[in-house]
Specification:
homodimer; 310 residues; alpha/beta; seven-stranded mixed beta sheet
């Protein structure tokens, strides 16, 4: 199966602790790297996770709070020092480019590569990225400032040709692409060979959803229905539910409830408040509701469709 | 002896590695904390070194390259989140305040404390800070952009009263301050008691000098003469001496030569290039010239006048 892996670079929240970096993740889709949020130190954690800067071309920023974007300036500068030439694309709620422009101009007088900012609206779910194998759509969230999560969806793959059957029916080569795309085959004698006899179905298209920072939302539940892996913030334990509501955050138990109701396959919680010495209480409260929950931790790598990698 | 300790928060250079944070240090002088440079992740390392944000009131920035100041925005924001009320003072070559103003305004709409920027000239050695027990002066350096090191000098302490002698001569209490400051005492009978009989000398005033980033300079050698501890960048090994010259940096051996010629008591080298897997070669080249050299490393704590702490 093609690679579809999530690397946690940081899973703390705004206040620094001795245990966590602020939020950043990297999704590895067939060796293309997609960064999601870029808190302070993201470039250091990126290196620690043994990822390659040259494979990173797209960065998605959920919202303009410092713990989700203060690592951008250092990362952009490092790529410049390294003499990068490929374009770099940054997707975020509007305002980021104007905000960063003076610092970028001062610290990177000459850029070896081009930087493109793609502001998105945060009110409606919108597809903001597409390539041959993947789409990325926003997931509108509700936080103290405009904020979106992201849904990474593989495109359905092509059916796999069953070599023996194609040989048996002497299917000409020029028909193979149509058949991969689901077409039946009609022999010169007029016999119809259904596609299902000529192919095996493609591996199921996989989906990863990232939701942070936000109140728990019914609209999110619908948008992430059935995903293979859901990252949802679980900043607080239940005892701090009023604090979560006040600050537009989610408790671990609320994240688990949403995961269960949305029928996702697996949940990873993060964006942990600095108040917790460790997050076992949050895990306990979540697994009671949704057993397939794991705690995020720095340098953790999860296969989106399967077992923990490291 | 009063505390005078150096904490290394980061000792890498511009490119991120898996082993080092960019430059930042904290000098603890009698439990007042002075930060020197503030590379990305400095606030995380500050916490890791178990230092207290409330004791930090002064930050000294050597020059406006990202690996020496990209941690400021995060640190300033964190102090705001924590509801700090005490003033914070930042000393740097000119331009920093204007550069940071838009980001500061956006990410910290309301500040709970006041921030004061103190730009300094980088051409001449100048005293830029003074309190009851300490002065801080700039050390002009030569780098690709305006840059200064810093000399932290304890003020000479008062002599210690020898209780037995003061009792013996029945010195009135109101004379004690003068005697601590070095005055002799004249008894009612007109006998002169020399100060040296009434006091023990104060502990020697200690000095710490920080020099990064720079070419090796004769003027620095004079300004740091005899200091208890010298931090000097030693970015490269000898094989890269041409590269060091080209980029306005110093090799470990050059730093050691400067330390020897300046008669400093101890040298710590840092600002290591990302090209070295470990820095044993740099240490070797330095100790051959100046044996009392140590390698900086993250969370290292050195007593300015003595042994390694952790």
């Amino acid at each position: 199966m093609e690679k579809f892996e999530l690397h946690i670079l940081g899973c703390g929240s705004a206040l620094p602790t001795t245990r966590h970096f602020p939020t950043s993740q990297v999704l590895n889709v067939r060796d293309k790297l997609f960064m999601i949020d870029c808190g302070e130190g993201a470039q250091l954690q990126f290196r620690k996770s043994r990822l390659k800067f040259s494979r990173l071309n797209h960065i998605f920023i959920s919202h303009l709070h410092g713990d989700h974007c203060f690592g951008l300036l250092g990362l952009i500068s490092t790529l410049n020092l390294l003499g990068r030439t490929a374009d770099l694309h940054i997707y975020s709620p509007k305002g980021l480019e104007e905000l960063m422009a003076p610092m970028l101009a001062f610290f990177n007088r000459e850029m070896t590569y081009r930087l493109f900012f793609h502001p998105f609206e945060t009110k409606e779910a919108t597809q903001i990225y597409e390539d041959r194998s993947l789409t990325v759509s926003t997931i509108p969230l509700r936080h103290r400032i405009p904020c979106c999560g992201f849904l990474f969806a593989e495109k359905p793959g092509l059916n796999h040709i069953v070599r023996e059957m194609v040989d048996y029916y002497q299917v000409p080569l020029y028909e193979l692409n149509r058949i991969k795309n689901g077409a039946d085959y009609v022999t010169p004698e007029g016999e119809l060979i259904p596609n299902s006899r000529l192919t095996r179905p493609a591996a199921p298209a996989r989906r990863y959803a990232y939701c942070s920072d936000t109140l728990p939302l019914a609209s999110v539940r619908e948008q992430v229905r059935g995903v293979d892996l859901l990252f949802h913030e679980g900043t607080f334990a239940e005892e701090a539910a009023p604090r979560a509501r006040e600050t537009f955050h989610t408790t671990a138990a609320q994240a688990a409830t949403l995961a269960r109701e949305a029928g996702v396959k697996r949940l990873v919680i993060g964006h942990f408040s600095a108040r917790y010495e460790d997050e076992s209480l949050l895990l306990q409260e979540a697994t009671r509701i949704f057993p397939d929950t794991v705690l995020a931790r720095e340098t953790l790598c999860l296969s989106v469709d399967g077992a923990e990698k490291t």
